[in-house]
Amino acid sequence: MPRLMRILDRMAARAAAATGALGELAVLAMFAHMALDLIIRLIAGGTPEGMPEAVARIYMVMAVFLPLAGLQVTGRQIEVGVLADRLRGWPRRLQRLAAALVTVAVAGLFTWLSFDVAWVATLRGERVVLTGFSLPVWPGRWAVVAGFGALALAAVAQLVRVAAGREPVELAHGG
User: Fold this and answer.
1) CA 75 → CA 36, 38, 138, distances in Å?
2) Left, alpha or beta for 171 (phi > 0: left; psi -120 to 50: alpha)?
3) DSSP character for 45?
4) Among 38, 106, 125, 151, which one is most buried in terms of CB atoms within 10 A?
5) First to last CA, the chain
6) CB 5 within 8 A of CB 165
7) Tens digit of each residue's pLDDT (9 = 90 or more) over 29-42
């Protein structure tokens, strides 16, 4: 069991790091795109096409979904701690076990459902048709799959740890 935990912890940490880095790159690309848009507006006096669509359908989707696993593994996810913070002993372990199980189930379900949507969007070459060109938006669909998939993996690692009576990694490391 300790070997399995180390392997799962390592896989979850790597998945969280990879998806988090892609999310950061999406934010940087969005800022660069917005800066270029502003420069073109100031110099040419016109607005290039596709900026709102690219931000809404690609960059923001990536910025929101890709970092989910990183938040989970570092213990920075949103949680309601009114009751959980007061629990000690086996009730606290049971609460953590239930929370990890629900997270695995929901993230796994969303991974599965979003995979189907991303697959169909990719096969169809999903695009937003603009006046001068069409913008491919199907890559943003895969960010949802990657984000929820990495989150599910992180939650599985936490579930195994809690089931074995160990602290989640972020708590064990003082996160």
Assistant:
1) 36, 37, 31
2) alpha
3) S
4) 151
5) 23
6) no
7) 999 999 998 998 89
